[in-house]
Design a protein that fits this description.
Helix content is 69%, strand content 0%. With 227 residues, it is an all-alpha fold. The chain crosses the membrane at residues 35-58, 92-111, 205-223.
Length: 227
């Protein structure tokens, strides 16, 4: 009995039992009458994300100092040559996209399936897999499914942006656009997804704004010939 109590307490703490159906509250919850304040706060968040990502994606920013060297190292290891982000930007974009594609359509699919398994009393039913997602209550299983769906929602926007950058960038171009792509993937995989799973909604929301801003910064660098 004591062991069962411990398990029940642990499950309740992370809200992974199918019986937990009431979501919590957030600092970003707004009443229906906030039709002026809510758009203003949302717009302010998006504008601040654009400014921050413009700084981080610059050739001397965080992306160039920490993320693009990782991509260059991976290129040298996987292609067994001297390829770097600077001298082979198209190959760098392909590698980054392959990693993101694996994360979205393989790793997060497994996450979603496990969420369906945990969230349904009958377990996972492969005959009607999408039915498993219906009526799953608030809690970790629901967030596992939602994380996968959210990544699937944003990936097409990344794919279009990456394709446009790959066709426009040259080895002599500054690294702003590739830095922006790398920052987008980092934000979505390393910050947004864990925050979603752990129910840290403020971090989840703002990291999503920053990830979208990163794509806009990458495209704008092409338009202004700063790619």
């Amino acid at each position: 009995m004591a062991k069962q109590t411990i398990y029940a307490t642990a499950f309740a703490r992370f809200r992974i039992t199918p019986h937990m159906s009431s979501p919590g509250t957030s600092l970003f919850d707004f009443p229906q009458t906030s039709y002026v304040a809510f758009p203003l706060i949302l717009s302010g968040g998006l504008l601040s994300a654009l400014h921050i990502l413009s700084y981080l994606a610059a050739p001397s920013g965080l992306g160039a100092r920490f993320l693009t060297p990782v991509i260059s190292s991976a290129l040298r290891i996987l292609s067994d040559d001297t390829s770097t982000v600077e001298n082979n930007p198209q190959k760098a974009i392909v590698l980054l996209t392959a990693f993101y594609l694996f994360t979205v359509y393989m790793a997060s699919v497994m996450l979603s399936n496990i969420g369906q398994l945990l969230g349904n009393k009958a377990g996972y039913k492969n005959k009607e897999p999408r039915l498993n997602k219906r009526n799953i209550p608030s809690g970790l299983p629901h967030r596992m499914i939602a994380t996968h769906e959210a990544l699937c929602d944003i990936f097409p926007a990344y794919a279009v942006t990456a394709a446009l950058i790959a066709t426009s960038i040259t080895p002599k171009s500054p690294s702003t656009s590739i830095n922006a792509l790398a920052l987008h993937v980092f934000l979505k995989v390393a910050i947004y997804s864990p925050a979603y799973l752990l129910d840290i909604d403020v971090v989840r929301t703002y990291s999503h704004m920053c990830a979208v801003a990163a794509l806009l910064v990458g495209l704008w660098a092409i338009v202004t010939e700063e790619a």
